[in-house]
Prior knowledge:
This protein is α/β, with parallel strands linked by helices. About 40% of the residues lie in helices and about 25% in strands. The protein has 8 helices and 10 strands.
Amino acid sequence: MAEKYYAGIDVGSHSTEAVIIDDNKQQLSFSIIDTGLDGNAAAENALNLALAKIGINRENLNGIVATGYGRANVTNAGKQVTEITCHATGAHHIFPQAGTVIDMGGQDSKVIHIDENGQLVDFVMNDKCAAGTGRFLEVMAKRLGSDLDQFGNLALLSEQAVPISNTCTVFAESEVVSLLAKNHPRDQIIRGLHQAIVDRIWAQSQTVGIHGAVIMTGGVALNQGVIQLLEDKLKCELLVPPQPQIVGALGAALIAHRNFR
């Protein structure tokens, strides 16, 4: 009998991820690429890249599920599922003990409460602007002349933070320019920006509450400054997957496995 494979594709505003799993729900490969201007093309490219890594043809896939910001544009998917459900499913698969999922992507942030079976109980989502998201960090890192990969580590160099009153990306950028003009230390400004993000996520978490172990997903989970400051704020350890960006795509692949076996 031919081996069965399943794919999940997460088309985000900033990046697109694809994950391939087998019939035993084992993750075989993944890919992460920039979404660009064409979400469907990004989905195709991400899927082809993930398939090529393990030498599998498209014909070997039993099912494909799309999720994320651009899921409706993915023409090769047999099903589209919301990112909330996919992140809940993926997070539970990696950390079955997790009761809370904090996802911070390029343009939105979510706090999701799941039960012991990984089923959605409640959630809150910020999707009206890029405040407190990966895009916010990207803009601020560029303004402060920092590499985005090192931005979080710079936030931990100072124990003091300059308060940032704006979490709107546009207004916060103007505020940073003003603080620099007043000779506030750069590392204190960077810590203040990270603290502003953490305070915003903490406020979101109060809506649904913190339940059980907390898993952090999304690209911002790679930022050590956000992780450490959020752990301090929540007074708990955050569980971070090895590749936090692909949790939504993994959840989509698991749902494909469930729906198309």
